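fyi for ur records
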Amino acid sequence: MCREQCLALAGLYAAHARVTAGYRFACRAGCATCCSVNVVVTSLEAEYLRQAPAWQDPALAAEVHRAAAQPHYTPACSTNLVAACCLAGREPPPDPSPHRPGACPLLDERGLCRVYDHRPLACRAMASTRPCAEGGEAVMDPFLFTLNLALCQVIEHLDRDGRTGNLLDMLTRSGPDLHSASLVRNRPLPGFLVPPEEEQRFHAAMDTILAWPVGRGRLGDFLPRLR
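which gave:
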């Protein structure tokens, strides 16, 4: 994975934190209701996660391998494929794999993420205004769902020659194994899915994110000029 891609991903994470800083979320350390074995990431995000100091512990890698050996959710298509189908007025491919019970093996005994600073966008995006344990699900501003979906698309575009899959698979496979049938080929960004009533907020947020400095340039340099 090239250094520029990882720098761009780190910049996107930082920009996402800046844009969402004004929200009052109920999420606190040890609140791990949403930390499950059903997290989906790209190969770029998995590579970035492997840079976390905690991942250098062989015991943690062994825990992830044990979890990956159990039945788990595997996505049937990538975010950009779904977006491309929606933009073209077609139904996306079916996603028959069921979500499975179980906590993410990256959690420690206190319910804290051992790779928190390197966690993928799917984890950063799962932020609720009410404790998830109370109602069994996150409560989120619909605009944040739109923005987070768009940033998932951006990450996939950054990693458009890579793969998408369950976090467990992405952390336990590399090289030729990334071409496994259980992993989905990534696609370029086809455009964003933004409801008309959210367009103004969306473009303002994206302007901030795409202007985020990456190396000697900015994050927008890595993307096509789309609106």
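DSSP finds nine helices and five strands in the chain. thats all i got for now
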